[in-house]
Amino acid sequence: MSRFFSSRYSELTAYTPGEQPQDMQYVKLNTNESPFAPPEKAVRMASEAASKLHLYCDPECEILSRKLADHFGVGRREVLATNGSDEILNFAFMAFCDDASPAVFPDITYGFYQVFAQLNHIRYTEHPLREDLSIDPRDYMKNDSTVFLANPNANTGIALPLSVIREILEANPDHVVVVDEAYVDFGGESAVPLIREYDNFLVTQTFSKAWSMAGARLGVGIGCESLIRDLNTIKYSTNPYNINSMTQAAGIGALESADEIRKNCAMVRKTRENTAAELKELGFEMTPSSSNFLFARHPKINGGALYQKLKERGVLVRHFDNPRIEDYIRVTIGSDSQMRQFLDTVSAILNGGEQ
Fold first, then answer.
1. Same domain, residue pair 205 and 187
2. pLDDT above 80: residue 354
3. Domain containing residue 143
4. Do 199 and 161 belong to one domain?
5. In which order are the strands placed within the sheet that holds 79-82?
6. pLDDT attached to residue 355
7. Which pLDDT value is given to residue 16?
8. Which residues 6+ apart lie within 8 Å of 22 measured at CB?
9. Among 60, 84, 186, 316, which is least packed, fewest CB within 10 Å?
10. DSSP class of residue 294?
């Protein structure tokens, strides 16, 4: 750090994104990207929008917002499009947390929650996951903090049922509950319908996973009009033109290709189950995943060692140093051919051979 760096951030630990190595061609299964290209209509509309990049983009994202509202079955003023779901999550920390409303989230979850709390100088509590790495809902029924939950949970892929989300909302009438549904399209149950019942409920989703648009950076928040107004206040106080014209156009094209996206998600789920079955035959243990990844460990090899051996053989997965999950690797569900190469490589490693 330079001598000019503000002391306010001296203890900030920045988020570590997944590797994007350039040294060789990998079977890339480390950042939960889609194995499918974005819809052709999304690409075409983004390309057409590029011809007008000399003009400012629409700060209201009006056409995109109407398409989002239609897709989720809510009103136009009940959605807010953002630069990835990271932005809407940061807005929520800024808008709904303070000294009277600290943040609470699991100890093993999306790593940005801790970063956003630190960045915004918000007190926070991390509740440990249970022994089986599932969330204990009772930890979030104390009505004293703003709740942040990824559902399905990041890293573990375990989903809470809608009935439990409802219980958490009922227990926190005076604090906002934020449910991050980045992976919901792969087997979770979306809680979006509950925004009409609870004025303290915000749902976030992303186009980075199911929608094959990780590089476009598009997210969305869904909540009652008053919550969305709060978040718009933050948006217009930081970056009014937060979504560029090409991303807005790509989002519209993707939403108009929703049937294609649903088919892709079904294929990911099928490949996930097939991969999980083969991993079990190899002796792996896994959490029950409702996401586009598997969280797996093998009793005969440490997760870090397996990650390194896979990387040396051209297969990239994710490993976390957290002591509770250091035995695990997180494996994105790629194409069938990518998963075949992953499985063959893992088998060779376990058998002491070369791949």
1. yes
2. no
3. 40-256
4. yes
5. 79-82, 219-223, 201-206, 177-180, 146-150, 103-106, 124-127
6. 39
7. 83
8. none
9. 60
10. E
